[in-house]
Predict the structure of AbrB/MazE/SpoVT family DNA-binding domain-containing protein.
Amino acid sequence: MIKGESTVSEKGQLVIPKEIRQALDVQRGDKLSWVMNDDGTIRVTLAKGDLLTLRGRTKSGGKSVSVEEMDEAIKAGAAASERAGYQSSGAVSGRRGGRSGTARNRG
């Protein structure tokens, strides 16, 4: 758990504590979403934007790769795992289509 404290300025502005800014990777221009619960607690989260807003947030270790190159790497890794005696769950079975760019919770 990370805790922090802020003081409200005369203009109603807050400074987000450094530890929390770093943990959320909050950068200039980012939007925050505020929710006040019935019990008075407030939840603040980094507002979700489209994928383009994430551009530049992570360091790239090399060149970009296509979806096809990723699929080939997955197949090669699965084949190597099978040769090593691991069972495949079929979760990455080379299915095509239906890619939306969002993760789904299958739990």
Remarks:
- The radius of gyration is 21 Å.
- Residues 31 and 47 are 5 Å apart (CA to CA).
- The mean pLDDT is 77.
